[in-house]
Amino acid sequence: MTVSHRYKSFDGAANPANVGSQQREDDIEDAKLTAFEGGYQAGWEDAIKAQGDNNDRLTADFVQNFEDISFTYHEAYAKLSESMKPILSQLITKLLPEVAQKSLGPQILDQMTALMELESGAKIEIAVAPDKLDVVEQLLIGKVSVPFKVTAESALTGGQVYLRAGQSEREINLDAVLDGVSAAIEAFFHTTETENDNG
């Protein structure tokens, strides 16, 4: 495509007879150039619009997929929580109390050692629930060299033990620990159920 028709010719041998045909050729060239520029501009605008439409579609798809994933996650989380509740309930009511009772002896020994450091030479009194009297005595016989006496106090529960020596006293309260674990698990399930009902 030539643009020479836009500039004045300085070659004095121009043929007047060709001026009209040259003018038509110049007009045709101008029309072609205008059409080309118009087409190019229209194509560019179409490409920008198509890119924008594509970006909008991709964004909408991403948002929808994210919402679907989020819903699926919450649904799976709710089902998992629901299925875990009976297992954790059994854990709290059966397994943890057994484990706690098995740990009672070592805990009493630890507290006795701490008391002996504070009250050297004092006899240690170990107060337990009446139904734990024989169990605790059996746990300690042959394992403790310091003088001790196990007494029954009806106000205590099976998971409570008080150790006293001189002016010092220590408490072991497995029931409070188990109650705390149980309350935490109940609170977790209550929160989960509330979120599922609201969501």
Q: What's the quick description here?
A:
The chain is built from three helices and four strands; from the N terminus they run αβαβββα.
Notes on the structure:
Helix content is 67%, strand content 11%. It is rod-shaped. With 199 residues, it is an alpha+beta fold. The model has no long low-confidence stretch (mean pLDDT 78). It has a four-stranded mixed β-sheet. It has helices at residues 19-118, 133-140, 174-198, and strands at 124-128, 148-152, 160-165, 168-173.
Approximately how much beta-strand content do the residues carry? 5-15%
User: How would you sum up the major sheet?
Assistant: 4 strands, mixed
Quaternary: single chain
Strand order of the largest sheet: 2-1-3-4
Tell me the total number of β-strands: 4
The rounded distance between the terminal residues' Cα atoms is 67 Å
Structure class? alpha+beta
- Determine Rg (CA atoms, Å): 46 Å
Low-confidence segments, ≥5 residues, pLDDT <50?
none
- The total of helices stands at 3
**Which word captures the global form?**
rod-shaped
Average pLDDT reading: 78
Helix content: 55-70%
Which helices and strands appear, and what pairs or packs with what?
Layout: H1 19-118, E1 124-128, H2 133-140, E2 148-152, E3 160-165, E4 168-173, H3 174-198
Parallel strand pairs: 1-2
Antiparallel strand pairs: 1-3, 3-4
Helix pairs in contact: 1-3
Can you tag this structure with a few keywords?
single chain; 199 residues; alpha+beta; four-stranded mixed β-sheet; 11% strand
